[in-house]
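Ticket #4471: structure output looks truncated?

Reporter: J.K.
Steps to reproduce: submitted the chain below (149 residues) through the standard prediction queue, then opened the result file.
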Amino acid sequence: MMVDASPQLRSKKKLIEGFIAQLNENELDKLADSGGNITVYDSNGNKVSIVDCWSEYVEQKYNHDLAQLVQSEGLNDALTRKFMEKSFSAGEVSELGTDINDLMPRMSRFGAASKARAEKKSRIVESMRNMFNEFVGLIGFSQYDSQKD
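Returned output as attached by the reporter:
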């Protein structure tokens, strides 16, 4: 697959494969080239741009993955979304400041709980970096995305 040959696309491989998999064989048979624009037909027979389908898929997948992270780690939803938007705008997931601490659930910083808290924070940062790498360049609210092009 061409995705493996591109360093920029490797982190997006699962996303691309998921999008292709969601197009069932009937839709693939109905692909039409209309003046250089690939078009698919929705379940109602309406023509839909594949670019629009991709954008919608990326947005839904991002929101799903972010909601899953919030739920699994017990994070503050609004602060987590704000943090990720800020990360896309800055072009990186930063551990500096108190932003990550603010979105995490309250945990003791002393004694044995201190180690559990540090492990949780590390796991959250790693998950956020993985999400960032998967969706950078694809999410519309990012100033960083438009600067890269």
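Triage note (M.O.): checked the attachment and the full token line is present. Helices lie at 7-10, 13-22, 25-29, 50-73, 77-90, 99-103, 112-135, 143-148.
Status: closed, working as intended.
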